[in-house]
Write a structure and sequence with these properties.
- This is Iron export permease protein FetB.
- It is found in: Membrane.
- Pfam families: UPF0014 (PF03649).
- It is a single chain.
- By secondary structure, the chain is mainly alpha-helical.
- Helix content is about 75%, strand content about 0%.
- It contains ten helices and no strands.
- The longest helix has about 35 residues, at about 215-245.
- It starts with 6 loop residues before the first helix and ends in a 19-residue tail after the last helix.
């Protein structure tokens, strides 16, 4: 069991934020207000999530779990497009399809096939695992989309040259597709490469703090990392394939005019 925290202990930890505010004031960074607002916002969001999860855990019914999962997926799909510099008409739908497909499929396989949770919607497992998968997948989707749309415009001449020489749309864009999927997987691969040596992941740390043995925590973390890697790859591949279908038509023509700069910048 983890050590219970009182409100004054949480308040004591919050005073550490004042160190950042003091540094910002002393160095004239102009970040003091942003630090305080971000801290207050984080506390409010986590308190709200804590109340909602407490209610869902008490109900023990699949509908609230699925409903929360869909809301989380909708927000993740929107966030996946937030940092993309060039967009097309259905980019939000493509992002949602990629995040939803990869996250729900892999979370379901993990709960039912690997961990064998019963019932399958057990919120103590379903919501945290889905949250981790969504967070990782949206990063992969965002990076892959941004890289693919940028490369399509940046290498437009080369792609159209390949098409003019008789290449199919897939042959003409294969290099850009592969590069985008690799970019989408990069954060997960980097994390896996140093995990356990440079960093201890959050799930493993949380389980140890909650009283689980290090061996059990390590096994859970290994399972989760394999799921995150698969979800990143599937999400990045899906969204790049959907973008490819929009930016290249069935007559093997590049339709770069469908890419637009978002109004007002990012």
């Amino acid at each position: 069991m983890s050590v219970p925290l009182s409100l004054w202990q949480v308040a004591l930890a919050a005073t550490l934020l004042l160190v950042n505010v003091a540094l910002s004031w002393r160095l004239r960074l102009g970040l003091g207000r942003d630090i305080v607002v971000a801290g207050v916002r984080m506390v409010a969001q986590l308190l709200l999530v804590g109340l909602i999860l407490g209610w869902v855990f008490a109900l023990q019914h699949p509908l609230p779990v699925v409903g929360i999962g869909l809301v989380m997926t909708l927000l993740a799909g929107q966030a996946g497009v937030g940092r993309v510099r060039r967009r097309y008409a259905r980019i939000y739908l493509d992002s949602f399809i990629a995040v939803f497909g990869s996250s729900f499929v892999l979370t379901g396989l993990t709960l039912a096939g690997v961990l064998r949770i019963h019932p399958w919607f057990e919120p103590q497992y379903a919501i945290p695992i889905l949250g981790m998968v969504l967070g990782n997948t949206l990063t992969g989707v965002s990076l892959a989309l941004d890289r693919f749309t940028s490369d399509v415009l940046g290498r437009r001449g080369q792609i159209e040259g390949r098409l003019a020489l008789g290449a199919t749309r897939w042959e003409a864009a294969h290099t850009e597709v592969a590069s985008a999927v690799q970019t989408g997987m990069l954060p997960t691969l980097n994390s896996m490469a140093v995990m356990g040596i440079v960093s201890l992941p959050g799930m493993m740390t949380g389980q140890i703090l909650a009283g689980a043995s290090p061996g059990t925590a390590v096994r859970y973390q290994i399972v989760i990392m394999f799921v995150l890697a698969a979800s990143s790859a599937l999400g990045a591949l899906t969204v790049v394939w959907l973008a490819f279908r929009t930016l290249f038509d069935s007559r093997d023509r590049l339709r770069a005019e469908r890419l637009k700069e978002p109004q007002g910048g990012r």
